[in-house]
Write a sequence for this structure.
């Protein structure tokens, strides 16, 4: 569900010169809500809102719900107050993904130069298909027609010479439209849009630019790179805005984008400062993330914890580990450490049951810095080597070397415990594969 600013002035005929306009951006219209209406035709014409529960947020809303002021990321409780007659449905991501997969398969008949950016958005480079189709707009028209005919949902298409302008065009073609922006007019097109339309211009950036007297894209285009760098505080950000304000974009359509992160998060039924509740949820998240890593054959180096508080504000904190991992037994302790640091709690506070200083509404964990487990070299640590060492003590299990041996024994036990935990999690994967993800959960005991 797109909430990007739009301009009625740009939704017009910009000309019919399609030379060089080989990039299409296809954006499904209110996709989740449209999927539900497709399988429940009796809902057509009614305000359909995806999201249930007083603690949840709106994932999507049909266009009939928009006049009520309902939009994505809004608390469901607010949406119900604004639109009491709306039809509120739970998120069915498996269904939406299945429809998305079939739609993308349809597009792959035209070209394999397809970059999926989300479940309901895709870029296409159709340069190689023009010998058969002749015009990019002919491809866009066919996609719109076939998607609606086969799946009973609509999409909007932007046709342009680069990804930036194509996406802005599809946004301003909504709903169920197509907009062509000729290469020669892309700067003019972009400079008629609201400043917040540009990627990289959020509330904070817009406020900083406003201090420099910049409130429109046209004013942004009049700034030099040097002034933009001073205004934004970042040469990289400044260069991106300098190009965008001129309708320029150097990015290519990348048919396959490696997964950048894997995460899991959940909202509590009630705000809580109970450390056991929050740590228990982080354990579930770590288990889900680790299981996904193993299933996809990946390792992760960086773990991030995300919290949402009672006032709906967010906080995140990350930590990069020395070695990549794919087990919850390795991830979970890091999430607890990050939780304590985020809330300025002393180490070990959570395990001691000390109440959190702020009630938490949502908690989650994610990992990034992903790499292929089959090809990533992982140097064995000292603990790994200890875990492989046989126990060469006497048959009575005793040692005559005193406290030093006892300390070494504790280290060996810790290493072997970690190894056994990794093996146990692999066994859980087999059980889940056979009986479903909910068949068994990981439990870790505080050391």
């Amino acid at each position: 569900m797109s909430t990007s600013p739009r301009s009625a002035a740009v939704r017009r005929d910009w000309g019919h010169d399609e030379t060089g306009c080989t990039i299409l951006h296809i954006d499904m219209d209110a996709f989740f809500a449209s999927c539900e209406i497709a399988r429940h035709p009796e809902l057509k014409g009614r305000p359909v809102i995806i999201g249930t529960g007083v603690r949840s947020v709106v994932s999507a809303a049909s266009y009939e719900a928009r006049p009520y002021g309902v939009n994505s990321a809004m608390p469901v409780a607010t949406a119900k107050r604004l639109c009491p007659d709306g039809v509120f449905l739970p998120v069915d991501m498996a269904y939406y993904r299945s429809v998305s997969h079939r739609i993308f398969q349809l597009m792959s008949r035209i070209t394999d130069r397809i970059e999926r950016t989300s479940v309901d958005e895709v870029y296409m480079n159709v340069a190689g298909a023009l010998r058969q189709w002749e015009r990019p707009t002919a491809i866009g028209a066919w996609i719109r027609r076939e998607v609606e005919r086969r799946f009973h949902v609509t999409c909007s298409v932007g046709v342009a010479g680069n990804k930036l302008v194509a996406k802005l065009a599809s946004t301003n073609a909504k709903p169920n439209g197509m907009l062509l922006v000729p290469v020669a007019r892309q700067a003019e097109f972009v400079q008629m849009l609201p400043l917040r339309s540009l990627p990289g211009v959020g509330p904070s950036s817009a406020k900083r630019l406003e201090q420099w007297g910049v409130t429109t894209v046209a004013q942004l285009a009049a700034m030099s790179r040097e002034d933009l760098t001073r205004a934004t505080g970042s040469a990289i950000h400044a260069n991106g805005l300098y190009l965008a304000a001129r309708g320029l974009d150097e990015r290519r359509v990348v048919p396959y984008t490696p997964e950048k992160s894997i995460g899991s998060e959940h909202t509590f039924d009630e705000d809580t400062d109970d450390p056991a509740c929050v740590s228990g949820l982080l354990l579930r998240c770590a288990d889900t993330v680790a299981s996904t890593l193993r299933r996809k054959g990946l390792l992760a180096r960086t773990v991030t914890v995300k919290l949402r508080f009672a006032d709906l504000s967010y906080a995140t904190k990350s930590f990069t580990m020395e070695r990549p991992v794919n087990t919850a037994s390795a991830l979970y302790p890091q999430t607890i450490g990050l939780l304590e640091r985020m809330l300025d709690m002393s180490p070990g506070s959570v395990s001691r049951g000390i109440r959190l200083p702020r009630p938490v509404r949502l908690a989650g964990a994610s990992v990034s810095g992903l790499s292929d487990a089959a090809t990533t070299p992982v140097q064995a640590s000292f603990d790994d080597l200890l875990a492989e060492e046989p126990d060469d003590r006497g048959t009575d299990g005793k040692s005559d070397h005193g406290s030093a041996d006892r300390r070494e024994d504790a280290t060996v036990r810790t290493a072997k415990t970690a190894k056994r935990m990794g093996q146990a999690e692999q066994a859980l994967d087999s059980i889940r594969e056979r009986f479903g993800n909910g068949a068994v959960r990981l439990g870790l005991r505080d050391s």
Summary: Residues 68 and 81 are 10 Å apart (CA to CA). The chain has four domains: 8-185, 194-244, 261-372, 382-439.
